[in-house]
Amino acid sequence: MKARVHITLKNGVLDPQGKAVENALHGLGFGGVSDVRQGKFIEMKLKAGDAAAAKKEVEEMCRSLLANTVIENYAVEVID
Amino acid sequence: MKARVHITLKNGVLDPQGKAVENALHGLGFGGVSDVRQGKFIEMKLKAGDAAAAKKEVEEMCRSLLANTVIENYAVEVID
Q1: Closest Cα of chain B to A37: distance in Å?
Q2: Is B16 in CB contact (< 8 Å) with chain A?
Q3: Is residue B14 within 8 angstroms of chain A, CB to CB?
């Protein structure tokens, strides 16, 4: 079973990395770009009985290690 | 118009960051996890006429700045 996790900064949290990317894109001539936000994307394989159990386990991983829930949101997707 | 970009390491490219996450998850008792790969996830707003033009522009950004195409793949999704 595979899982995909998106970890993004919460709205209102400053994203200096995204801002740096935005400025670099402007410098390269992509003037129409705004609100660039950079997050993390994690893929993993899991030994889990069913999709519901897998999702629960990955959410637990997010809370305990992968995401800083004070400033970050996480979204878990389980595939096949 | 909004775009979402996933930047992932190509197959066969070592991912020490993913490996570190995997080891940490094992240490926390999540023994069933394997093949952890960490990538980047970028969201942005665009001023573009239509979805096809937006996608083309973002792919150009990936090639020129966002992704290192020697070791990374990129996938672009344009929303509304």
Answers
A1: 5
A2: no
A3: no
Residues contacting A80, CB < 8 A, separation 6+: A1, A2
Model confidence pLDDT, tens digit, residues B23-73: 999 999 999 999 999 999 999 999 988 999 999 999 999 999 999 999 999
- ipTM of this predicted complex? 0.91
Nearest CA in chain A to B40: A40
Looking at the domain covering B2-79, what would its CATH class be?
Answer: alpha beta
Chain A residues whose beta carbon lies within 8 Å of the beta carbon of residue B66:
21
Domain ranges in chain B are: 2-79
Taking the mean position of all CA atoms in its chain, how far away is CA B49?
25
CA distance B60 to B55: 9
| Model confidence, pTM | 0.92
- Structural element, H or E, at residue B59: helix B51-61
